[in-house]
């Protein structure tokens, strides 16, 4: 861990101290893979004749892939089968990018440090199949008590539903949870759930 990462790690560890449960986003928070996700979205969009602006993926960080497909359809006025688009995007991501995923070391270390001391949850807009591979590649798989992902709740981030379900699984009051995020939709969801939060990209 370099000096900058060490500083961020110590700050996050201190922030985590008062809470009973820590809830981690994956893409962009535990896993340094946002550029890979953007590349997969751009590639599948191109198959539909869409020259996708990757900034749209920053705007929709944390959304389920199907919801992002719907947004692309609206913005670019192109008819998409959202489910097929989402499956193709996941296939490209897994085939071309997932094995190169690196951990965000200063966030992952906080999870490691508090494993077995605090309740640990993972809350992501990704699909369970893709997340299981990502979490395995960054050596986090199985080091948490619950994984809430796309399809587990009626609405994904920025709805509070995924966070509230994780708190319910962990049997922890929402006010005793700290959410680790890198995107605005996740922060909105955490606030709506009555949880504290930290933007790991802004510390």
Structure description:
The relative contact order is 0.20. The protein is of the alpha/beta class. It is built from nine helices and seven strands. It has helices at 3-16, 34-47, 55-59, 65-76, 82-96, 105-114, 128-137, 161-170, 184-192; strands at residues 21-24, 31-32, 102-103, 119-123, 146-148, 177-181, 196-199. Helix 9 (184-192) links the parallel strand 6 (177-181) and strand 7 (196-199). Helix 2 packs across helix 5.
Give me a quick take on this structure.
Helix content is 49%, strand content 12%.
Write out key terms for the chains shown.
alpha/beta, five-stranded parallel sheet, two-stranded antiparallel ribbon, 203 residues, 9 helices, globular, 12% strand, 49% helix
């Amino acid at each position: 861990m370099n000096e900058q990462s060490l500083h961020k790690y110590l700050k996050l560890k201190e922030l985590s101290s008062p809470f009973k449960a820590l809830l981690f986003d994956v893409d962009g928070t535990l896993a340094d893979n946002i550029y890979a996700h953007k590349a997969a979205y751009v590639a599948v969009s191109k198959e539909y004749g869409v020259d996708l602006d990757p900034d749209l993926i920053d705007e929709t960080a944390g959304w389920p892939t199907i919801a992002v497909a719907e947004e692309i359809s609206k913005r670019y006025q192109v008819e998409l089968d959202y489910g097929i688009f989402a499956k193709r995007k996941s296939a490209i991501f897994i085939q071309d990018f997932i094995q190169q995923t690196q951990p965000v070391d200063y966030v992952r270390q906080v999870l490691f440090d508090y494993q077995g001391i605090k309740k640990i949850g993972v809350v992501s807009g990704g699909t369970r199949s893709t997340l299981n591979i990502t979490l395995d590649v960054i050596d986090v798989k199985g080091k948490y008590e619950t994984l809430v992902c796309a399809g587990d709740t009626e609405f994904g981030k920025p709805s509070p539903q995924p966070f509230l379900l994780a708190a319910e699984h962990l049997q922890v009051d929402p006010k005793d949870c700290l959410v680790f995020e890198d995107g605005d939709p996740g922060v909105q969801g955490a606030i709506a759930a009555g949880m504290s939060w930290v933007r790991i990209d802004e510390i």
